[in-house]
User: What shape does this take?
Amino acid sequence: MSITDEKFFAENIIHINHMISRLLWSMNAVPILLIIFTYFGIFSVPFTFSLGALAYAILTSAIHIFLVKNKKFPKFTMYFGLFVVQIFIALLGTQVHIGIYVAYGIVPIMTCLYYDRILSRFFCIFSYIGMILSLFIKFKNGAEIFGNESFAVGYIPVAVGFTIEFAFVLLVVNVISERNNATLRRLMSLADDRGDFVEKLRESKAGLEQKKLELEETQSKLIKFVAEVLGSHDLLTGSHVIHTQKYVELISKHLRETGHFTEELTDENIEMYSNAAFLHDIGKIHIPEGILNKFGKFTVEEFEMMKSHPKEGKELLSFLPKIGDGRFNEIAIKMAYCHHEKWDGTGYPERKRGNEIPLCARIMAAADVLDALISKRYYKEPMSIEAAMRVFYDSRGTHFEPCIADAVIELQDKIAKIDGEFKQHEAEVYKEKLEWWQRYHRMKNST
Assistant: This one.
């Protein structure tokens, strides 16, 4: 904002016009007081004059109020109000028994509120002319009050004396006007500097937010890249982590919608749960490919080795660079380490039970088993959605927390739709890879 900012001055004119409107309305009290004081002999002002002044005050104040409310002509309203006050003061000054000389400086001082030096100078001249004319009329009405019975002899020195006094008014108005404008320029300069600073700060903040978003996007891509790397090591685990990511999000939102864990399942936490699902099987990188991609059931030794992947995942994720405030890292570790624990305490690796298992891992366990049931494995064909739901119903309160098992069952239709989309998309992709692994196993078994 600069010293020529039109919006500021337009708003200031409207604001000061409101103030002068209140002053004009209070002006109605002056003629009433003159009537009262004259009635009790304190003043000697003709009733006709007082009534005329009252009529003038009521009419002009009413017009000014109308103009202020109308808001169409703020500058005209400004001039009208200042003229009305100055003329009223000059009219009162014509009365012999009313000493109102200091009041001639009121309007020039009031003009300083408009931050317009030309306006202030104009009304200084107009006020001075009003004072000289009212003094002239006062002499005509009764020159003896100045100690001079002769108008010709008494008026000129009195007018000169009042002119000298008014020069001080002019000096004060000029100083106030200059000071107001200097202060305004300073304030506006500070406002400009502050505005520039705020704008730069806003741009800087936007830049930081953009960098943060870019960093989060990069981190998300890296996480997905790790999942892809895992997929190259284990064909089915690659697609499995993608499926479970979707199911974790779906189950989490449904739990919140049905009134469960509403404080924990914020949008931010659900997003972190969903992204961390990509890493829940990261420990399988340390499991030999021959075991991961085996056609058929595991031996006892092979199964024990497979059961080590939660601990391996926890250790691997401890080396993951801190993401954001570190909460994502904590969630990823909990999901990787505890997603094979069971609600009744019969799971592994620590046989945790109930709420000892972190919520993120309890949800992850459901998504993990869900996808394992309805997806193809080397050693089995996919189970139907209906059969999978029966498993969850039977495992309610044993393998799974009851409300989480219920959530999966209630989501049956949505899960069926998502599963169908996954299978349609992956049919051709995994056909070639499965054939490659089958050839690999035939070659291995033949040697």
